[in-house]
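Please fill in the sequence for the structure shown.

STRUCTURE ENCODING:
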């Protein structure tokens, strides 16, 4: 890679150990992705927050570097392991709580905004077109590249942190104008949010770094969000474009058979003991839709609703949180269905959800079975 004199100086350790470590990460990432140089970024979004995923090694690393490290650009955070407002209701051990709070403190010492959300695109203003960012959360990276007119690599936890500390990121292929080599032709009629999630999961499997999607009308934010969540779960694909693509593009159909294959892979239970909604976390529009669908009905079993704290505060002002709590919902901020320690296979056999991303991680990380349904089906089947 071609580095500036300042970047070379940092790489040699002349600007301290932390900057040397950060530049080593960026150069290694850039060389692995054929980037010819580093470019400035304006916003980093970090993963590596949940103690469930980074463990003692991650907690100790962040505690150590936070004494000196400071972010150089706007930096936001993925969800952590619990909502401090109601953590005492969920039987988490004190060690988990104290280690999670240590991680939170370390990021705040570095100057990171404690947003604890996997949907930064719904709670922060989107920068102008073609702004370079560095997002580690997979659904947010795909959303940025495909819907928000931003440019990001599909960053790892380490490369996003290194970008936050340096204000730079490798100029890899996803940041450039490209032409996907595969087009997925949507053949399923009347899709709902679950269908879009399954389409994304399928696209993530068959695509490389980007795919074309044809056969869709204008996609709204919620449909796009469901597709980004599914796509980010199943592979390395980090961008989709609308249209048929070039004439020599390979064409693959997503029809009822392929959709059923995805459903069969992720749906492992006839019913769930608990319902979870929000992976990615629910935005205000989705909470409004849920309240509208409930129409005074109540859930027959526990229903956990995950949403960013800022959205919860907005929902509270409107009266949505009262409506959801009357329906039996437990509303949680700062955490997410995905990789949550709040659901354990010691207490729960199966979870009902409409999230493809949630289904994948509940099954593979939490070790619980999954009953996959659309939101309309959940409200119809699980309320009275």
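FILLED IN BY: designer on duty
SEQUENCE:
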């Amino acid at each position: 890679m071609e580095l500036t004199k300042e970047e070379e100086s940092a790489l040699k350790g002349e600007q301290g150990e932390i900057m040397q470590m950060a530049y080593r990460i960026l150069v290694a990432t850039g060389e692995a992705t054929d980037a010819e140089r580093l470019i400035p970024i304006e916003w980093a979004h970090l993963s590596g927050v949940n103690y469930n995923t980074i463990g003692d090694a991650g907690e100790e690393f962040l505690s150590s570097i936070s004494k000196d490290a400071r972010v150089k650009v706007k930096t936001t955070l993925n969800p952590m392991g619990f909502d401090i407002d109601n953590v005492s209701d969920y039987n988490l051990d004190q060690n988990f709580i104290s280690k999670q709070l240590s991680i939170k403190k370390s990021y705040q010492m570095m100057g990171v905004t404690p947003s604890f959300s996997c949907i930064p695109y719904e709670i922060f203003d989107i920068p102008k077109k073609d702004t370079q960012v560095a997002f580690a959360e997979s659904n947010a990276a795909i959303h940025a590249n495909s819907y928000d007119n931003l440019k990001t690599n599909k960053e790892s936890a380490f490369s996003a942190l290194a970008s936050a500390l340096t204000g730079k990121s490798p100029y890899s292929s996803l940041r450039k104008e490209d032409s996907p080599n595969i087009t997925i032709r949507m053949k399923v009629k009347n899709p709902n949010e679950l269908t879009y999630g399954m389409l994304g999961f399928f696209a993530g499997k068959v695509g490389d770094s980007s795919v074309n999607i044809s056969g869709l009308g204008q996609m709204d934010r919620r449909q796009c969000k469901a597709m980004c969540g599914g796509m980010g779960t199943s592979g390395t694909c980090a961008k989709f474009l609308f249209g048929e693509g070039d004439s020599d593009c390979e064409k693959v159909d997503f029809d009822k058979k392929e959709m059923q294959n995805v459903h069969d892979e992720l749906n492992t239970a006839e019913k769930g003991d608990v319902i979870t909604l929000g992976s990615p976390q629910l935005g205000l529009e989705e909470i409004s839709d849920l309240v509208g669908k409930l129409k005074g009905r109540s859930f027959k079993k526990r229903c956990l609703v995950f949403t960013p704290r800022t959205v919860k505060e907005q929902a509270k002002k409107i009266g949505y949180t009262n409506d959801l709590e009357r329906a039996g919902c437990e509303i949680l901020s700062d955490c997410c269905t995905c990789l949550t320690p709040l659901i354990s296979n010691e207490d729960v056999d199966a979870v009902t959800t409409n999230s493809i991303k949630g289904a994948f991680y509940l099954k593979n990380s939490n070790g619980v079975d999954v009953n996959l349904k659309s939101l309309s089906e959940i409200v119809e089947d699980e309320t009275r």
